[in-house]
Design goal:
The protein has 26 helices and 15 strands. The chain is α/β, with parallel strands linked by helices and 623 residues long. The strands form three sheets. Strands 10, 11, 12, 13, 14 and 15 form a six-stranded mixed sheet that branches. The chain has a five-stranded mixed sheet with strand order 1-5-4-3-2. A hairpin with an 8-residue loop joins strand 8 and strand 9 (221-226). The longest helix is centred in the first third of the chain and has 22 residues, at 127-148. 43% of the residues are buried.
Length: 623
């Protein structure tokens, strides 16, 4: 994500910090440009991580402008905005009254000036997405440059005395910093540009960061004295560089070099998970040229259960022989494979069959595979593949593909579903492109997995995941604390991903009714619920009341006049019959990562829709 310092370096924005700026940088997720008069009388809404630009700062008749800016600064501070920029004729502290400058410092709001007129900012705002894309490209280029500075062969590490210095020279230029690799016992191992002799930096407030080269946290250290605050992208680059330098510094063993490549493969997977397929292709080009030069992929997920994942990893690497992208899941004890579909999938040595043979040799392991997805939709393919693991665990061969079972998305009438989903999600889908894509991606995964897991998958903090999901539900006017609200929103998102969306509908309730009344949907619902109907315990009634009571075991038990342990027994009995996982928690709704709303929906969603299509209950918030 771009920062204030990044934007100040862009000539088109004509931005400068007042009085040199704050000591810490701030991320900028969006920009909002408006007149000073428009900020008066009321809340600005959600401006978290937003740079607010105000114009008509010196309009005639504004003799007490600080009286208007003061409330604005307090609002920006309270809502944790990225900063405030004011339109001025020319830069300089004298362009902003001292009372405003002191208020900004006291409230902790970064204050900037811009010489661009307010009307010009309306055209500049879309540049933020362009800048974000350039930043991703820069990151990809630098990761490729790091790979290129590693020896081509592991055996060369012992004799390549310049490997560490090459990396340090590149790193100093890439992040504009003095770089030193030192060890308490061995002294300085490498430095650039001339950090051993010139210790007077070019800035009055340098930022020095240290990164241990060993995972154990002791031994050689990479020290970086930057000439500007380090943003997240550069910090991540330094972390990768420290790992690479650690490999060179340590025994330069083959498995350590392999580990670096695995870390890069994980970085590539994370880029794919956020839809940055071009950046992912650029990063992987230096490691496996052409591997991701494809439009369609499948994703396979190997669940290693409680076994040692490294055994499965090594066997899978040998079986794949570089034919697919393989990475350790950063959240679960899984391996994730992105298969570019180069060969016939039914061939004996296809990626799917090769991985199936690996799973067959490892008791306790299982594998789920997705349908064919576009390369830009790896996150959706991953969600589907992970959901298929439930079926795989109960299959004799312990492998299963998504198309081996019918799904709600396969039977919905596309035209009606597009219209309904587009209307329900309209407040999100009409956001600017960059914000829309970011929010949709996070909502998709955040409604399937705990927020900590999603943060690791996307490479962002769990609080950022929670903030984005809350923002999405606030825009939709729905309470995300209610399970059925989350079920409906996640389904609408899946419709948009699979079929796209149409313009605003005049009667979304009628669209929803028509969609759920389609013969194909009714047939799917009857087939899905058939195993439950055959059970003498009336599992359908338990599931319906459980959903109507927000999946709260205690309230469900009270409504059914049963013991909570009986309700949980019914839920556990239903799960294998429908081949879905159902969250069976204690008397209160299960709490994951301290957030009571982080409940997996992959099992709840089809049950809710099948029951509604078949019986009309539970009632779903369709519009």
């Amino acid at each position: 994500m771009p920062t204030l310092y990044n934007l100040c370096e862009e000539p088109d924005f004509c931005l400068r910090f007042v009085d040199g700026g704050p000591t810490t940088d701030r991320a900028v997720d969006s920009i909002r440009a408006l007149s000073l008069a428009a900020t008066a009388g009321g809340s600005l809404g959600d401006v978290r991580d937003t740079l607010v630009v105000i114009g008509d700062f010196w309009d005639s008749g504004r003799t007490s402008v600080h009286e208007e800016v003061g409330p604005l600064l307090r609002e920006l501070s309270r809502r944790r905005a990225a900063g405030l920029a004011v339109v001025v004729q020319e830069h300089g502290a004298q362009a902003v009254p001292v009372v405003i400058r002191s208020s900004a410092v006291r409230l902790g709001v970064p204050l900037l000036t811009t010489t661009k007129a307010l009307r010009d900012w309306q055209q500049l705002i879309p540049r933020l997405r362009e800048y974000r894309y350039r930043q991703a490209e820069w990151h990809a280029d630098q990761l490729t440059a790091l790979l290129n500075r590693l020896p081509d062969r592991f055996a060369d590490l012992d004799t390549d005395a310049d490997a560490m210095q090459r990396i340090v020279d590149w790193l100093a230029a890439a992040v504009d910093a003095d770089v030193v690799v030192g060890d308490p016992l061995r002294g300085a191992l490498a430095a650039a540009p001339d950090a051993l002799t010139r210790r007077s930096p070019r800035t009055t407030s340098p930022q020095t960061r240290s990164f241990p080269l060993s995972a154990a946290g002791f031994g050689a250290v990479l020290s970086v004295t930057a000439r500007r605050p380090l943003d997240d992208v550069r910090t991540e680059l330094l972390e990768h560089a420290a790992k690479a330098l650690g490999l060179v510094d340590r025994a330069r063993m083959r498995d350590q070099l392999t580990e670096t490549r695995r870390e890069v493969q994980l970085s590539v997977l994370q880029l794919l998970m956020v839809g940055e397929e071009v950046a992912a292709q650029r990063v992987l080009a230096g490691l496996a040229p052409g591997l991701l030069a494809t439009e369609s992929v499948r994703v396979h997920v190997i669940d290693c259960a409680r076994e040692d994942r490294e055994v499965a990893l090594r066997r899978a690497e040998d079986a794949l022989a570089g034919r697919a992208l393989l990475a350790r899941c950063p959240v679960f004890n899984h391996l994730i494979v992105v298969d570019p579909l180069r060969t016939d999938e039914d061939a004996p040595r296809s990626v799917w069959h090769a991985l199936g043979e690996v799973v067959a040799t490892l008791p306790g392991h299982c594998m789920g595979g997705s349908e064919v997805y576009a390369l830009s939709s790896v996150a959706d393919a991953y969600t589907q593949a992970a959901g298929t693991l439930v079926t795989a665990r109960r299959t004799p061969g312990r492998v299963a593909r998504a198309e081996q079972r019918a799904d709600l998305m396969d039977v919905l009438p596309p035209a009606t579903a597009r219209r309904w989903a587009g209307t329900l999600l309209r407040p999100v889908l009409t956001l600017p492109a960059g914000q829309r894509e970011q929010l949709v991606r996070t909502l998709e995964l955040g409604l399937e997995y705990p927020h900590t897991a999603v943060g690791r998958l996307l490479g962002i903090h769990r609080n950022t995941v929670t903030h984005r999901i809350s923002k999405g539900f606030d825009l939709l006017g729905l309470d995300r604390g209610q399970v059925l609200n989350r079920v409906v929103v996640s389904t609408a998102l899946q419709v948009v991903v699979k079929y796209g969306h149409d313009a605003h509908s005049a009667d979304p309730a009628a669209d929803f009714t028509a969609m759920m009344s389609a013969p194909e949907v009714r047939a799917w619902a009857d087939s899905f619920l058939a195993p439950l109907r055959a059970d003498r315990r009336d599992l359908l009634r338990t599931l319906r009341v459980w959903l109507e009571n927000d999946t709260h075991t205690g309230r469900t038990a009270a409504a059914l006049d049963l013991a909570p342990v009986t309700v949980r027994s019914h839920l556990r009995a239903a799960a294998p019959l429908i081949q879905r996982d159902l969250p069976v928690g204690p008397d209160e709704m299960e709490v994951l990562d301290g957030n009571e709303h982080e409940q997996a929906l992959s099992g709840v969603r089809p049950v809710a829709f099948a029951l509604h299509a078949s019986t009309g209950r539970p009632s779903l918030p369709h519009a």
